[in-house]
Amino acid sequence: MARIHALVVLCLLLTVGAGCLTFGDDNPTTETLLADLNETDPPETVAATFEANWTYEGATLSLSYDAWYRSDGASRVENDVGGRTTVTVDDGDRRWRYDPGQNTVRVRPGGSGDDPVTQMRRGLARILQTAPVTDIRETQYQGRTVYHLTLDPAGDRDQLVPPLLPGGITSRDEQLDETETPFNTTRMELWVDAEYMFLVKQRIEGEETGVFRYRNITFEGVDDDRFEFEVPENATVQTPTDSENATDARAPITP
């Protein structure tokens, strides 16, 4: 589990690349998508299953968890790894991490930093402004209209692109050179929901490869009680030290 935590972090690194490109009249442009992103409010709620499959140092890895997000930053994540279930709830005031198998609850201050949806939208804006987008097409993904973006710097190693999804994957080494990105990604595809400008799928290619996506996604109908947590009877409550809190505050909500 600790290894997964070390790998699964959000990476919103600056890209070093070309300016926005435009395309034919029949397809959207980076300018129109950026305008849509700026004019579209984030969804009030998001519910979905997040899946990641990638290669890292020659190993094939996968991750899956159920997630619920609310526009005020509240969130809930439930996952099952090797038969071990964990539940993480952030209600804005506190973040609860419950391990039913051990009947333990770790609690620390919540609401630290931007929520995953806000982080994703900021990273998407950066890509639309600076990255080597070579094609944009309108298509369908799980019954929803999406924009399919292709980013391909045509072999120019100075134009690398970063993974973008909440729960994206990066290397253990956080001291990356400014011209490097996780996986040394040289080509990327994004699928962006047209109604909410929400990134629903991503594929990266480079020294490593990966596909990250949401499935069974819905943007409405999530009850507020999803973002509430009550300590189970007889559970042991653990409060991290100040140093542990500082470390946790830099990490996104993940299984």
TrEMBL record:
Keywords: Lipoprotein. Residues 235-246 have a biased composition (Polar residues). Gene3D superfamilies: Lipoprotein localisation LolA/LolB/LppX. Residues 234-255 are annotated as: Disordered. PROSITE patterns: PROKAR_LIPOPROTEIN. This is Outer membrane lipoprotein-sorting protein.
